[in-house]
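Private note to self, pasted from the team thread so I don't lose it. C-alpha cells:
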C-alpha cells in the first residue's frame, strides 16, 4: 500500500522562501500529501503567505513560541496524519517529481528514515552556487556525509529528511539540541535498531546563507555541535570528523613555517588543494567566477567548522565542561 505523507516545515521569519517552497509543492505530479507549517515565533506575519495556498494545498498552519527547529518539528509531527514525516527546511524548493520519487524510492528500498542530497538551482546567484559547492563537494566535508556505498549508515539531514512516524515517536523525535539535532536523531534511530537510506532521486534546491559572514557563523556552530554529538553517540565517532580541524592546524603551521623561513612544503599542499578545488568547481559549474568563489567558500567551510570543532572538543574533553553549560545556545531550555 502506498504510504501517506506529511510534509513538515518549521520556519522562523523566512516569508519569501516559504512562498517559493509552497509554490514548488503546488506543481508536484503527485499531490497526495499534507503540509504542516510551524511558525517558530517569527517576528513577521506568515499567515498571509499560507492563505495564498489554502485552495491549492492540503495545508495547516500553527504558531508557537520560539524553541528552535527541532522542537518545532516535533510540534508539527504530533499533528501530522501521515505514515511518513518529511522534514524540509523553509529555504528549499523541489523538482516536480519529488513526492513521486519519494514514493517509488520507498517501494524499492523500504526503510525507517531516508534523506537526499541538495544542489544549486540555475537561478541561484554566484555566491549561493559557490556555497552550495562547498557544502556538497568531495573536497570538503560535503563528501563525507553519505553516499550510495555507505547507504546503510547515511545520516539524513533535516533540510531533506523523511522518517516513519512510528519510529519517530518511538525514539522521542528531535532532542533538545538546537544545532545538530538532525544527525542526533539519525544516530538515535540507529541505536534503536532502525534503518536509514540515501535516495539519490530526491535532491532539493537549497538556497543557503547569502553571504560569507553568515555562512561562516553557521558552519562554526556545526563544528561546535560535532563533539557534543560524539559525546552523546560515542559508538559512531569517526576520524574524518576531525579533518577540518587538522586542515586548519596544518595551514597555521604552514604559515608559521613560511614566515620563520622554514620549508614551505606544507603550504604547497594548500596551493595544490586550492588548484584542485578551483578546477573541480570550474568543471562542475562552467563558470570561472563561481569557481573562484568556491575556493573561498571551501576554505571558510573548513576553517570555520575546524575552529568550532576544536573549541568544543577542548571545552568538553580537556576542561570537562557540561555541554549544556559550555554551549547554552545549542540547547533549548524550558
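Design output:
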Amino acid at each position: 500500500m502506498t504510504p501517506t505523507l506529511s510534509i513538515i516545515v518549521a520556519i522562523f521569519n523566512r516569508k519569501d522562501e516559504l512562498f517559493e517552497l509552497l509554490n514548488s509543492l503546488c506543481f508536484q505530479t503527485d499531490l497526495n500529501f499534507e503540509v504542516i507549517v510551524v511558525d517558530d515565533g517569527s517576528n513577521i506575519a506568515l499567515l498571509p503567505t499560507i492563505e495564498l495556498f489554502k485552495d491549492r494545498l492540503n495545508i495547516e498552519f500553527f504558531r508557537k513560541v520560539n524553541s528552535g527547529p527541532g522542537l518545532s518539528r516535533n510540534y508539527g509531527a504530533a499533528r501530522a496524519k501521515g505514515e511518513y514525516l518529511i522534514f524540509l527546511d523553509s529555504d528549499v524548493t523541489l523538482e516536480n517529481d519529488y513526492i513521486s520519487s519519494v514514493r517509488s524510492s520507498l517501494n524499492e528500498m523500504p526503510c525507517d528514515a531516508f534523506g537526499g542530497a541538495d544542489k544549486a538551482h540555475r537561478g541561484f546567484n554566484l555566491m549561493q552556487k559557490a556555497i552550495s559547492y562547498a557544502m556538497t563537494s568531495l573536497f570538503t566535508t560535503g563528501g563525507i556525509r553519505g553516499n550510495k556505498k555507505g547507504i546503510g549508515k547515511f545520516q539524513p539531514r533535516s533540510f531533506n529528511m523523511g522518517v516513519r512516524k512510528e519510529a519517530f515517536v518511538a525514539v522521542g523525535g528531535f532532542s533538545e539540541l538546537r544545532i545538530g539535532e538532525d544527525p542526533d536523531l539519525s544516530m538515535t534511530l540507529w541505536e534503536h535498531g532502525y534503518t536509514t537510506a540515501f535516495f539519490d532521486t530526491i535532491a532539493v534546491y537549497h538556497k543557503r546563507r547569502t553571504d560569507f559572514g553568515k555562512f561562516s557563523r553557521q558552519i562554526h556552530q556545526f563544528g561546535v555541535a560535532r563533539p557534543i554529538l560524539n559525546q552523546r553517540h560515542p559508538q559512531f565517532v569517526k576520524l574524518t570528523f576531525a579533518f577540518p580541524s587538522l586542515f586548519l592546524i596544518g595551514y597555521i603551521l604552514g604559515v608559521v613555517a613560511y614566515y620563520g623561513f622554514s620549508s614551505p612544503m606544507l603550504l604547497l599542499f594548500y596551493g595544490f588543494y586550492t588548484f584542485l578545488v578551483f578546477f573541480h568547481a570550474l568543471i562542475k559549474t562552467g563558470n570561472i567566477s563561481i569557481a573562484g568563489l568556491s575556493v573561498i567558500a571551501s576554505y571558510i567551510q573548513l576553517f570555520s567548522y575546524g575552529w568550532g570543532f576544536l573549541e568544543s572538543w577542548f571545552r568538553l574533553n580537556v576542561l570537562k565542561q557540561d555541554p549544556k553549560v559550555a554551549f547554552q545556545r545549542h540547547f533549548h531550555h524550558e
